[in-house]
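seq as requested:
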Amino acid sequence: MAQTKGRSTHVKPESAGAGRAAERYVLTLYVTGATAGSLRAIANLKAICEQHLKGRYQLEVVDVYRRPERLRKDQVVAVPTLIRKLPIPLRLLVGDLSRTEQVLQGLGLVARTS
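struct tokens:
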């Protein structure tokens, strides 16, 4: 029994998921003005962040009509696009973010299903 205790102290497979829960997320959402798709993407992402990342995320919304140079900088080719800059690795999600389960998988908040 002491051996099991010592072993669980050194090998913590759960710690990867537990550490993930405290990570800070840095997100950038690229949209095209106040179009229906852009507004839907913003609303969907804010709802997901407030439910799953409350107090642990920083979100920047970039209107590509007002800041077109940002498209080139971040190599965005479709809009709306969400970029997860942190935690690394960088991830991109394209669309209105209405498929919550896929967004959660893309953000690395839930395990991918086969």
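The radius of gyration is 17 Å.
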